[in-house]
Amino acid sequence: MPLPAQETVETLENALAAAERIGWPVVLKPASGGKGRGVWVGLSDPMELRQAWQSQEQSGEGRQLLQQNLTGADHRLLVVMGKLLAVAQRQPATLISDGLLPLHRQIAVLNADPERGVGYERLKNRVPVDGRLDLILGEQGFTLASVPRVS
To answer: For every residue of 5-24, which 3-state class applies, written as one string?
Structure first.
């Protein structure tokens, strides 16, 4: 099983230097914590890493892990006392525009699905409407008020 190269960093300057050593793209996440909170994946250049770092600072996160970005399926394994009890393949939320409603309304409909919850309370997670989503949409030329055309 491939493991990513990683370094613990405490300043943006250390993170930028580590990214150059490890190679882009990278992942930035809190050194403590879990369950995917505060994880930024696929940061491909210094500007994206700066944005992620600033977001982490605003949320009060201290030391960070900077990791090599590995591609492929994301699996969670539950091992108790050396025995594998469960495996789940994680899949990111997707939304195909209906061409009628603004994205914030379409996301609200998606999040209303009873199979969606917070953390691990449901089979699927709700899509968080936050600064990270704004960045992702902006990279695609959209905002939460956009109504993407249907192809």
So the answer is: CEEEECCHHHHHHHHHHHCC
CATH number belonging to domain 6-68: 3.30.1490.20
Looking at the chain, how many residues does it have? Answer: 151
| pLDDT tens track for 88-128 | 887 777 888 999 999 999 999 999 999 888 876 777 888 98
Tell me the domain boundaries of the chain: 6-68, 92-139
DSSP secondary structure, 31-73, as one string: SS--TTTT-EEEE-SHHHHHHHHHHHHHTT--SEEEEE---S-
- CB neighbour class for 106 (10 Å; exposed up to 12, middle 13-18, buried from 19): buried
Residue 89 has phi, psi (to 5 degrees) of: -95, 120
Q: Are 55 and 128 in contact (CB under 8 A)?
A: no
